Amino acid sequence: AAPRIDVVTIFPEYLRPLELSLVGKARRDGLLDLRVHDLRDVATDRHRTVDDTPFGGGAGMVMRPDVWGRAIDATGQAPGPDGGPEVRDVVLLVPTPSGTPFTQAIAHELAGAVSGAAGPPARLVLACGRYEGIDARVAERYAGEPGVTVREVSIGDYVLNGGEAAALVVVEAVVRLLPGVVGNPESLVEESFGDAGLLEYPVYTKPPSWVGLDVPEVLRSGHHGAVARWRRDAALVRTAERRPDLVESLDVDRLDARDRDV
Ligand code: 6GU
């Protein structure tokens, strides 16, 4: 069976970009079983209510745990492609500005989990909250469920109106790491946040001169050793300028000996 991802949201149309480009192609090629669900489908009143006022007072609305519980449980009821029920471990991922930072390392973990890199494949369920968030008992309940891992993650230090845009980010970051999705897996290794923990070096293509700006001569020299050296230096300079926090956490043992005093 293809790796499975379920997204639950009150705005299923918000996830339409997942029909496009690399993720859309992975789905059409049968490399990914991605399903988007409308949270309101499991609401029980005639207004299909999913939220209510916060206990303790305060502004805004909070999403109801009973509605979320039914929606999350329902993602496991959907039969597999063979029509039979599936029992698989679940990673419940909740995008929230109060979460732990979402990183490339987490993307790799999730890709490994859903593709069954180490053991039976897990299902990944993304729960997109709106308003002031989801009643905290939802995370608590599923964290206590055998076979379920709950991860509350933030995609950065800014506030979004809901988890949907973050879910798009998480799905794209994970899906491109699934086996067979990126045609040339070499494009996965030289990237920012790849092995070395550095930002990517600047890249150039034709024309060699544009509006008075020239491509660095070394890149046109055909000297592969010199090109590699230049790119390595440029990556280090760029990282030091833009992300001093990353330089702090560089693993000295994984640096080229020549880089250690740059
Ligand atoms: Cl993951 N969700 C929301 N709603 N806002 C965010 C976020 C996530 N990450 C940063 N801001």
TrEMBL record:
Keyword set includes Iron: no
Localization of this protein: Cytoplasm
Enzyme Commission numbers on file: 2.1.1.228
GO cellular component, one term: cytosol
GO molecular function annotations of the record: acyltransferase activity, transferring groups other than amino-acyl groups; tRNA (guanine(37)-N1)-methyltransferase activity
Sites where the protein binds S-adenosyl-L-methionine: 129, 155-160
Catalysed reaction, written as an equation: guanosine(37) in tRNA + S-adenosyl-L-methionine = N(1)-methylguanosine(37) in tRNA + S-adenosyl-L-homocysteine + H(+)
Function field: Specifically methylates guanosine-37 in various tRNAs.
Record's subunit section: Homodimer.
Membership in a protein family: Belongs to the RNA methyltransferase TrmD family.
Protein name from the UniProt record: tRNA (guanine-N(1)-)-methyltransferase
Gene: trmD
